[in-house]
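Duplicate of #3305? Posting structure anyway:
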């Protein structure tokens, strides 16, 4: 007769992101809630889009914002798959709260975020920290914690500027619910981190065109000088 082990003792979840519905995962999501609302509050003019795990509390995105949870499809304000049925460059902020912490490749979703963000818009991405002692709480869940360098490379591949990323460490070091956030050396052991990056603004006039205008201006000035020199003898006469 095969040995059976109760599910609650295996530490294995039906889906990796289901871990966030447990005590340790919910504590972490609560620690991140204030950071989420700060990003949303900093973008009052354009709509905001929040994409989160099923266990997360829905943030206040406003009347023009959308909140979607990851499942078999994105579900919430609308129900959809990828690519997102949203207008290009229509959102001032897009927030991803742990929806990329399973083993899937991130480029498709990050590419969609780059498409729907307006120039200068903010992308906020929360991910699990592979260096924290808190990682023992999601061990064998199927979640995949990847370091900030991995996410910076992924953002660059999708068109975001690589050198303009800000980083904040969030959550507990080990004890559930101790919370907090920071950017110091000891904060690197917190349970998660959040990357913030802005989409590139479009240049008003392309640099090549500016060079052409300067060249034309130089030609006009030279022609004017030649005309004045030619007219000088006539004026003296």
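Output from current build:
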């Amino acid at each position: 007769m095969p040995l059976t082990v109760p599910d609650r003792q295996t530490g294995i979840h039906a889906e990796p992101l289901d871990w966030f519905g447990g005590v340790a995962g919910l504590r972490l999501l609560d620690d991140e809630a204030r950071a989420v609302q700060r990003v949303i509050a900093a973008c009052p003019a354009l709509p905001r889009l929040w994409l989160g795990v099923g266990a997360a509390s829905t943030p206040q995105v406003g009347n023009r914002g959308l909140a979607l949870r990851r499942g078999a499809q994105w579900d919430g304000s609308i129900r959809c798959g990828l690519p997102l049925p949203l207008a290009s460059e229509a959102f001032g902020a897009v927030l991803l709260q742990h929806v990329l912490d399973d083993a899937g490749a991130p480029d498709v979703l990050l590419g969609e975020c780059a498409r729907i963000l307006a120039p200068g818009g903010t992308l906020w991405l929360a991910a699990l920290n592979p260096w924290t002692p808190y990682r023992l709480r999601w061990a064998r869940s199927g979640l995949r914690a990847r370091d900030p360098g991995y996410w910076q490379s992924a953002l660059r591949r999708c068109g975001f500027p690589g050198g303009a990323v800000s980083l904040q460490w969030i959550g507990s070091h080990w004890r559930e619910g101790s919370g907090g956030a920071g950017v110091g050396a000891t904060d690197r052991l917190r349970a998660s981190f959040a990357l913030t990056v802005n989409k590139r603004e479009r240049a008003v006039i392309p640099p090549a065109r500016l060079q052409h205008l300067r060249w034309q201006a130089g030609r006009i000035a030279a022609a004017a000088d030649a005309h004045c020199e030619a007219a000088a003898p006539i004026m003296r006469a």
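Confirmed duplicate; merging threads. The two ends are 122 Å apart (CA to CA). The chain has two domains: 7-198, 203-237.
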